[in-house]
């Protein structure tokens, strides 16, 4: 994408921030039993990105979360209420979409394979991937760990959930182009003005509707990021 770095926030652009918990502004406390598909992707043992369990040994995330890394850098935790204390797996392999190019938000998808298989329980279950474009303004649940406001706030690793509305593609296109992102149908937006928004470290949090994932968080506008003034969250559309 042709964009001005200072206008955007994404995983690598915010890597210098030490407060890398996953979090949701205006989120409400929840439990992993209500969101057993959630995984956390750890980088050198610290929370880095979210993942979504889609099969017995694979999670999906955004490509930027694994690009240029090695399997030894990463691990996956599932069944956790804080993103750290749960069942931990080493990473066997991962693959970004073959058309993904670093710095471009098109085809921003990756699959991560764990060593072994997940053990299904009330805290760990797969979720299906949506197959049809949702209707505009459909209400989606999003959940993640940690920070609840802008960088510098006290860390909080509780699992939190909130609600985002799916924006129409035309609304999303207008917004993303306004912050310098080249539009592609593989992008989407979620928004809940003045209420729930996604924060530093929420990368790849899943937007879930009727027990299926439709989008994963990929990019945010720096202006108002993780505040009540936040703009829509840019998503990788996985449908």
UniProtKB/TrEMBL annotation:
In the record, biological process GO terms are: proteolysis
Q: What are the residue boundaries of the Peptidase S1 domain, all occurrences included?
A: 24-239
- One Pfam family it belongs to: Trypsin
Q: Which InterPro entries match?
A: Peptidase_S1, Peptidase_S1_PA, Peptidase_S1_PA_chymotrypsin, Trypsin_dom
UniProt GO molecular function: serine-type endopeptidase activity
* Keywords assigned by UniProt, alphabetized: Disulfide bond, Hydrolase, Protease, Serine protease
The residues forming the signal peptide are none
Q: What is this protein called?
A: Peptidase S1 domain-containing protein
> Source organism lineage?
Eukaryota, Metazoa, Ecdysozoa, Arthropoda, Hexapoda
